[in-house]
Amino acid sequence: MATLKGLIFDLDGTLIDNMDFHLKAWHRFFTHHQLDTTHYREQIHGTNGEILQRIFNKPLTDAEIQELAREKESLYRDLYQPHIQPIHGLEDFFGEARSASISLGLSTMSGQENIKFSLQHLGFQDHFSAITGAHEVRNGKPDPEVFNKTIEDLRLAASECVIFEDSHTGIVGAKATGAKVVGITSGHTVDELVRWGADLVIQDYEEISLDKCKELVNHH
After folding, report:
1. How many domains in the chain?
2. Which of 159, 166, 158 lies closest to 182, judged by CA?
3. Rounded distance between C-alpha atoms, residue 188 and residue 111, angstroms
4. Angle, alpha carbons 173-13-202 (nearest 5°)
């Protein structure tokens, strides 16, 4: 029987409910570059590089992609900074985990600047024993690479961890590690999260406890 030793979190939509601000930033980006915004939401999936190649519909150099991505993420941070706060109940849940010496990890497809921005403004800089961002992996979600690296850095087995996610690709990638997965309904319905593989679904962190996480792990 496995023992709970680690909790691993995605960032966007999981620690913070910020996806609307990413959408607003993309809309401003499209407008600034005189791109058609009619169906912009359908085009913004995948990594920034994949999105930018898609929306400009021409080959872009790595330098061009980096510059354009910086522009979009800067727009996002300017929009979101006055509103940033953790999802309800998260701080108490972190406190419970830390009191029980449960390791915390972060696995996100955000880049370094957005990770730093989020953790600093939330006051979470010292909470995580392992952090993996987009700049450290070759493959984005649903590939499990970003989660596997965090699990490895925590020196744990996937069976000893519970992963928190809010998206389709995130849940699929998290499940592929062999860990138990909790879905959070910041952007999708309970039915969708369950259909994608979540073992448990919560609206916020008031609805979860270490005991519930231990139960999940014990049912391996």
Report:
1. 2
2. 166
3. 23
4. 80
